[in-house]
Amino acid sequence: HSADAQRTDLMTITRFVLNEQSKHPESRGDFSILLSHIVLGCKFVCSAVNKAGLAKLIGLAGETNVQGEEQKKLDVLSNDVFIKALISSGRTCILVSEEDEEATFVEPSKRGKYCVVFDPLDGSSNIDCGVSIGTIFGIYLIKEDHEPTVEDVLQPGKNMLAAGYCMYGSSCTLVLSTGSGVNGFTLDPSLGEFILTHPDIKIPKKGKIYSVNEGNAKNWDGPTTMYVENCKYPKDGSSPKSLRYIGSMVADVHRTLLYGGIFLYPADKKSPNGKLRVLYEVFPMSFLMEQAGGQAFTGNQR
Ligand code: AHG
Ligand code: MN
Ligand code: MN
Ligand code: MN
């Protein structure tokens, strides 16, 4: 019975990635090991996010923990966890995080061939009110013929080997692409495993939603203003679009992938290059969007 099979034959993220890798005979399982360390980081952050409200209450009794350390903010805590999990995988050589000013170069004895760029906690303005937040990551492969330098990570997004995000929302969902489509996995808390729940995600061809911080409209350029105006007052007689904006890129992109539409953070007078960070926010999300049959562009170029 197929219903039985669904309940008992669980496609975990580890099994899924091992299956994918077995199509490449040259693969030595390194990517699966790296991913299992990323997954561990996501599970940790998920559990920390779920306890965040409670931790605050405990925090009120004294802002310091038993060791006399000040309680770490969730984004800093998440960063520490990912940095340690990635180094201990033994498969990374350069780590670039939103929370660190400088790139981390892994010491030679623990070094591997992957570079990971990541935003450990995206949507931090939403932490204290319990709205969805996430983690974003992108993975590059370095050629093993030279000492790693920062140039190895300053590469176009299209050179990424894999990208993904984990959303800590009403459920914990990890969306991943290794360059052959996009798949979504949901954490089953009773098993502690991510199970394939959204196979081969494709963005709907047409969407009825636009997603943008309209509070910045005063500072937009002409074309952006005209575009958003047309979402509200379409000139071709079609229905106006709905507006949804969460303020966590992970959640806004996740909804866009599943329901269709457009998410934008246009440049404005305050941020002439836009607010989103290209390496660990825009590139991984663009990689996923393109892999799901969508588009990502600056306004002028891919
Ligand atoms: P972060 O919390 O990692 O610093 O990133 C926040 C980003 C992104 O998640 C979101 O799309 C955007 O900032 C929201 O910005 P506004 O509050 O300006 O709309
Ligand atoms: Mn972010
Ligand atoms: Mn962040
Ligand atoms: Mn930040």
From TrEMBL:
GO biological process, one term: sucrose metabolic process
Keyword GTP-binding: no
Class of the enzyme per the UniProt entry, highest EC level: hydrolase
UniProt superkingdom: Eukaryota
Catalytic activity of the protein: beta-D-fructose 1,6-bisphosphate + H2O = beta-D-fructose 6-phosphate + phosphate
Major subcellular location class: cytoplasm
Subcellular location: Cytoplasm
Entry cofactors: Mg(2+)
Span of domain Fructose-1-6-bisphosphatase class 1 C-terminal: 203-302
InterPro entries in the cross-refs: FBPase_C_dom, FBPase_class-1, FBPase_N, FBPtase, Fructose_bisphosphatase_AS
HAMAP family assigned to the protein according to its UniProt record, in alphabetical order: FBPase_class1 (MF_01855)
UniProt-recorded name of the protein: Fructose-1,6-bisphosphatase, cytosolic
Organism encoding this protein: Glycine max
Source species taxonomy: Eukaryota, Viridiplantae, Streptophyta, Embryophyta, Tracheophyta
Name of encoding gene: LOC100815943
